[in-house]
Amino acid sequence: MKLLVLGAQGQLGQELAALCAVRGIATTLMTRRQCDLANPGQIRAAIEGSSPSIIVNAAAYTKVDQAEKEAGLAQLANCDGPAMLAQASADAGIPLIHVSTDYVFDGSKPSAYVETDPVMPLGVYGLSKEAGERAIRSIQDRHIIVRTAWVYGVYGRNFLKTMLDLAATREGWGVVNDQVGNPTGTADLAEALLAAAEKTSGNDTCWGTYHFAGQGDATWFEFAEEIVAAQAAFTGKHPVLKATTTEDYPTPARRPRNSRLNSDLFASVFGVRALPWQTRTRNVVEAIFAQRRGRG
Ligand SMILES: NC(=O)c1ccc[n+]([C@@H]2O[C@H](COP(=O)([O-])OP(=O)(O)OC[C@H]3O[C@@H](n4cnc5c(N)ncnc54)[C@H](OP(=O)(O)O)[C@@H]3O)[C@@H](O)[C@H]2O)c1
Questions:
Q1: Which partner from 87, 95, 117, 243 sits 20 to 30 angstroms from 26, CA to CA?
Q2: Do the domain assignments include residue 29?
Q3: CA 129 to CA 75: how far, in whole Å?
C-alpha cells in the first residue's frame, strides 16, 4: 500500500503522518502549500508525482462559524476541490478515501444517525461538505466517504486544547449542554482510515459512505468536564464549569442538537471501533502534558 495524504498539516493529517511513520507505510504527505484543492494542476501533479495506491483526503475548510461569511472558500475546499480530486483519482484509476462530517445532519433524529438517514445541513460548512460527498459519489465509484464528528487530538487546534487554555487562566466558564455528539480522537480516526485503506487493496466490495466516531456520546459540557478533570492531575487547577444552552451562547452557524453517529457498519466492514471517548480524552490530555514537559 502506498498512500497520498492531502491536508497533511491539519490535525487529522498530522496524526495520519505519525501513524504511517510508525507502521512503516510508504506515504507522500502534501500540505495545502504543496497541493491546494483549489488548484487542479497541483492535484494532478501530486497524483502523478507520487503514484499512490490510494489517496486520503484529510484537507478541508473546517471553520464552522467563519464559513457563514466565507461560503465561497468553504465550497472550494469542501466541494469543488474534492470533485476535482475525485475526477483526477478516477482518471488515474486510484481509489479515494474522503472525510466528511456529522454536520450534514440537522439533529432532529432522536437516536444516532446511520448512513442511510436523510441529510439536511443547517449551515454553510455542512452544506459544502454534503455537496462534496455528492460530487465524489457521482464522479468516482471507488470511493470511501467517512463521516466523523467532534475531532480532537494532540495536533492542530481543537475544542480540547481550547478547554486546556481556558483551564490555565480562568476559574470557570460556561459550556453548552444541549448539543450531543461523539467526541472523536484523531488517533482512532487515523487507525480507522488506514484499516479502510488496507481493506480496499484487493477488495472491491466495500466502497460507499460510512460513519466512524468516538465510542459513546457526550454534550460539549460533558466533554469539557472530562477534559478539565483530566488536566487537574497535571496542573492542580480545578476550574468550575457551568452548563449553558445554545440560546445562551449564540454562534453565527446553527449546529445540530443531536449529531450522534452510529459507527456499527464501519466496525462490521473494517473491524475497527474507536476507544470510549473518555479514555481517548485522558490519553490525549496526558500526551499533551508529556509533550509540554519534554519541551520545558
Ligand atoms: N474538526 C472537527 O471537529 C471535524 C468534525 C467532523 C468532521 N471533520 C472532518 O475531518 C477532516 C479533517 O479535519 P481536521 O479537524 O483535521 O481539520 P483541520 O485541522 O482544519 O485541517 C484541515 C487542513 O486542510 C487544509 N486546507 C484547507 N483548505 C485547503 C485547500 N483548499 N487545499 C488543501 N488543503 C486545505 C488546512 O490548511 P490551512 O490550515 O492552511 O487552512 C488544514 O491543514 C475534514 O474533512 C473535516 O471536515 C472535522
A1: 87
A2: yes
A3: 8
Residue 194, Cβ density class (10 Å: 0-12 exposed, 13-18 middle, ≥19 buried): buried
Cα 143 to its chain centre, rounded Å, is 17
Cβ of residue 99 lying under 6 Å from some atom of ligand 1: yes
Task: Tell me, in angstroms, the distance from the centre of ligand 1 to residue 126's CA.
Answer: 13
Question: Is the CB of residue 145 below 6 angstroms from any atom belonging to ligand 1?
Answer: no
User: What is the CATH classification number for the domain harbouring 41?
Assistant: 3.40.50.720
Domains in the chain, number: 1
Residue nearest to atom 43 of ligand 1 (CA): 10
Determine contact, residues 289/234, Cβ cutoff 8 Å: yes
Q: Is residue 46 part of a domain?
A: yes
Residues of the chain with pLDDT under 70: 202-204, 296
Q: Which three cell numbers stand for residue 91?
A: 482518471
Residue type, position 204, single letter: D
- At 142-185, the pLDDT tens digits run 999 999 999 999 999 999 999 999 999 999 999 999 999 999 99
Residue 174 lies in a domain: no
DSSP state string for 10-35? SHHHHHHHHHHHHHT-EEEEE-TTT-
Closest residue by Cα to atom 1, ligand 1, is 151
Q: Which domain holds residue 58?
A: 2-157+183-216+260-276
Whether 47 maps to a domain, the answer reads yes
- Atom index in ligand 1 nearest the CA of residue 37 equals 32
